[in-house]
Amino acid sequence: MRRRLAVWIAPNSAEKLSARTHGRPPNPNSLYPVDMNSESPQTRYDTDALQASEEIRHQTGTKSFDIALTLGSGWATAAEMIGETVSEIDASQIPGFAASGVPGHTGTIKSITLPNGKHALVIGARTHFYEDKGVRAVVHSVRAAAACGVKVMVLTNGAGGIKEAWTPGTPVLISDHINLTASSPLEGATFIDLTDLYSKRLRDIARSVEPTLDEGVYVQFRGPHYETPAEVQMAKTMGGHIVGMSTALEAIAAREAGMEVLGLSLITNLAAGISPHPLSHQEVIDSGKAAEPVISRLLADIVAKL
Length: 306
Ligand code: HPA
Prior knowledge:
Blueprint: H1 41-60, E1 67-70, H2 78-82, E2 84-90, E3 108-113, E4 119-123, H3 135-147, E5 152-161, E6 170-179, H4 200-209, E7 214-220, H5 229-237, E8 242-244, H6 248-256, E9 260-270, H7 281-303
Parallel strand pairs: 1-4, 1-5, 5-9, 6-7, 7-8
Antiparallel strand pairs: 2-3, 3-4, 5-8, 6-9
Helix pairs in contact: 1-3, 3-6, 4-7
Bound molecules: hypoxanthine (HPA).
Hypoxanthine binds at residues 158-160, 226-227, 243-245, 268-269, 271, 279, 284.
């Protein structure tokens, strides 16, 4: 008897957004509460990203973007140096974005034209995993950037350093990560290769701008508490060099969306137990501010070469 192959026909055009989701049937084992007769989880979050990107493009007046930057603690003024700001919008006006809950984040989205004519989307609004809005909210800006046409995603953060040589104010390239959030932005049976997640090509470009840039493995903790000294030692034993509360989940979503990722941490403090004194958010903000002119120039010079 001839068997007919069951073909899942996507219900709307949103899945055209990504070859990855195109034609994929919903995962019957997914715990995500979706209507199996309707859309796959991936189609749903791509639809959300598409809606956000339409609004971003409309409100910024920029048809498509080549590169996106998420600016974490200490990196905000870099936006002013990378090119000419075409428009700036309030992130909370974009579907799926929320006003930033963290002091030191601007809460805006900017469209910037680089000296080489490329268009940069600068995201000053980051949702952290510890805000408990769900991992989709954490990576929504990355997916929206992908839906805006972005091919290179630059993720920056302020973080704690495990290497004692990294005094506060030192920028460090992220070479890889260890995700300790026990979560993933991927839903269903989505098997994405994360080898070379933090693109060697882009790290080499960054080092061509600043040959002294060191690199290390970023360990994402859930937060919002800082790590205990024992947790920092665990991260070190596991091969980590940088501790923080962002970036890894966003990088995974960026890779899923087919983007190349450049990760940069600003070491705002030595990590708990490595530092001789207790940690404070004020120290993170102050170190970020002090380092801002230098790291902003650095980032602008790197972006000009991407
Ligand atoms: N740990 C986690 N996140 C951070 C740190 C830290 O030491 N510094 C800045 N963000």
